[in-house]
Design a protein that fits this description.
The protein has about 220 residues and is α+β, with helices and mostly antiparallel strands. The chain contains five helices and five strands, in the order H-H-E-E-E-E-E-H-H-H. The strands form two sheets. Strands 1-2-5 form a three-stranded antiparallel β-sheet. A two-stranded antiparallel sheet has the order 3-4. A hairpin with a 3-residue loop joins strand 1 (about 40-45) and strand 2 (about 45-55). Helix 1 crosses helix 2 (about 15-35). It is rod-shaped. The N and C termini lie far apart (about 185 Å).
Length: about 220
């Protein structure tokens, strides 16, 4: 069956040959444009059309057997649906008064989304999840860094306080030693001063005796 025969087969169902030709052209054009754009066209019960990338490879020329390098290319692929396979295999019989391919569920034609839209949504969700995970990691790193810096500051402050107290203790120790030495010197000098004070009246008595002797000599 070619395209013209296909148009004739559906002409009575769509209201005329021209309407059938327009319908076939519209369906084929939509499929081709979607596959070229990288979308996957899936018809329930019939099959799916998709674009497949083939990497560069080596092949053999069937006529000469020569090994030939084939460049990287993209090709369209059609995969038959399970309903189509069952009908071809004979496990299911073709309906007489109904279409061979089951109709899509109600609401699926008006509310359905393309594969590209689904892929974009999935990519957006992954990106959002990745951003959230990155934000959590950065927050955790900031918290740990802040905790480390706070601990380091506290340790530094403790060390500085310890150094200050040590220096103060060192300064206070000589001062205490000098004060103790002064007190000891004062204690030692105090008895000496008292002894000198006690000896002083002896000098006075000696002076009185000499004065008395001079007076006696004058009288004589």
């Amino acid at each position: 069956m070619n395209k013209a025969q296909l148009v004739e087969a559906i002409a009575d169902k769509v209201g005329g040959r021209q309407q059938a030709a327009d319908a076939v052209d519209a369906v084929l054009d939509a499929i081709v444009r979607a596959v070229v754009a990288g979308d996957r066209v899936s018809v329930t019960g019939f099959g799916s059309f998709e674009k497949v990338d083939r990497p560069a490879r080596y092949a053999r020329n069937p006529q000469t057997g020569e090994r030939v390098r084939v460049k990287k290319t993209s090709v369209p692929r059609f995969r038959a649906g399970q309903g189509f396979k069952d009908l071809v295999a004979g496990s299911k019989k073709l309906p007489k008064n109904d279409v061979a391919v089951k109709k899509a569920p109600k609401g699926s034609l008006s509310g359905g989304t393309s594969t590209r839209t689904t892929v974009k949504k999935a990519a957006a969700k992954k990106a959002t999840t990745a951003k959230k995970a990155t934000a959590k990691k950065t927050a955790a790193v900031k918290k740990t860094t802040a905790a480390k810096t706070t601990a380091a500051k506290k340790t530094t402050a403790k060390k500085a306080t310890a150094k200050k107290t040590t220096a103060t203790a060192k300064k206070a120790a000589p001062a205490k030693k000098t004060a103790t030495a002064k007190k000891a010197t004062a204690k030692k000098t105090a008895p000496a001063k008292k002894a000198v004070a006690k000896k002083a009246p002896a000098k006075k008595t000696t002076a009185r005796k000499t004065t008395a002797k001079k007076a006696t000599a004058r009288k004589k």
